[in-house]
Amino acid sequence: MIIVIDSNVLISALIRDSLTRRIIIGSGMNFVFPEISLNEIRKHEKLIREKSGLTENELDRLLVRILDYIVLVPIEVIKEHLSEAKSIMLDIDPKDVVFIAAALSFEDSIIWSDDKDFDEQDRIKGVKTKHFAKLFEK
Question: pTM (2 decimals)?
């Protein structure tokens, strides 16, 4: 199974040494993240640094470390699924189209997100952090 991580999950893993970070690093699950969405992470870099207390260099090193456990999905792979993803998410939340497109790029995939917008569509299964916490604890 392929697990598409949304931006908020990755940001959460960057802000503190939380269960989210431990799941990404220690679970051995197959995580992916749309490469283009790294722009969103960079856009919120100042806020992430403020909340985490990390310097710019520390944050960069942590991001690289976490990305060692996540496969970045190039836009070329996602492109062919953007049209279908737009039809699914455009009226719900246009910012989430890329995550649906990434999930559609793989046969057996789910989206890890605590964003309720994913609950409003029925094409790709969305899983909350609390679900992964239960799996990880076992």
Answer: 0.92
